[in-house]
Amino acid sequence: MTSVFHECKIMLVAVSILVAACPVNAHDVWITTDGDPAGNLRAMVHHGHPGDRETPDPDKLIEFDVFVDGQVTRSLLPGIKSASQDGIPILKTEPIAIEKGVVLLAIRYDNGYWVKTAHGYRNTSKQQVPSAEDSLLSVKFAKALVSTKPTARHTYGIVIGHRLEIVPLSDPFLAQPGDILKVRVHFDGTPLSGVGVEAGDGVTPMEEKDIPRYQTDKEGIAAVKIAKEGPQLLVVDYILSSIHPDLANRELYNATLSFVLPSK
Description:
Layout: E1 28-35, E2 40-49, E3 52-53, E4 61-68, E5 71-75, E6 81-85, E7 88-92, E8 96-97, E9 102-117, E10 120-122, E11 135-147, E12 164-168, E13 180-187, E14 190-191, E15 196-200, E16 213-215, E17 221-225, E18 230-241, E19 250-261
Parallel strand pairs: 11-19
Antiparallel strand pairs: 1-2, 2-3, 2-7, 2-8, 4-5, 4-9, 6-7, 9-10, 9-11, 12-13, 13-14, 13-17, 15-16, 15-18, 18-19
């Protein structure tokens, strides 16, 4: 499942900066999983967009946690390593033994400071390049819901406290193509209105103009239409002025939510 695709998705709020140029480092980070006959899962970290993939950096993963019943049960950082899937660079975890039910996987990924130079964007702050025409802090969050058996437990709806977070308001695994899945977007624990939630499958490249987007209302809720079965990826970007203007002009936050809608 991937995140959607081109990064120049500027959201305007009272404290935001309108910036026309978006750096190539502003790709999405998202999670997928695969299983084995023993009932174990491996989680995979993706970086980029369909048709435009980057190599995820394990050193930028701050957290990669497993939540069961709303509680962190283990970290997946130990043993994670670089790998390849169908020629695409990914990070892959050790096998995860999980209980039957719904499990939430969650990542915080600090992509660091970036400045625009005459030779392109470089991974440093304005302190090193005070004359940079553009500069930003890039932080990414990713969640994946994994269902091994239908469950009444509300793991899908927990708020784990990512600075930018997408929270489904109903069980996404009960959705069918054509249904509406309502999600709430949080920023700093508060519902975020007026931002677009993008919907894709993380596999199919799409032109920016063709990406389905669903705006959040005054309560931070977006009504997302489920297009088809299979992998689902929801993405939101949020840009605001930096609280450390000596380091960067703006802050770019990105959050994804992925899950697989099984065939009925």
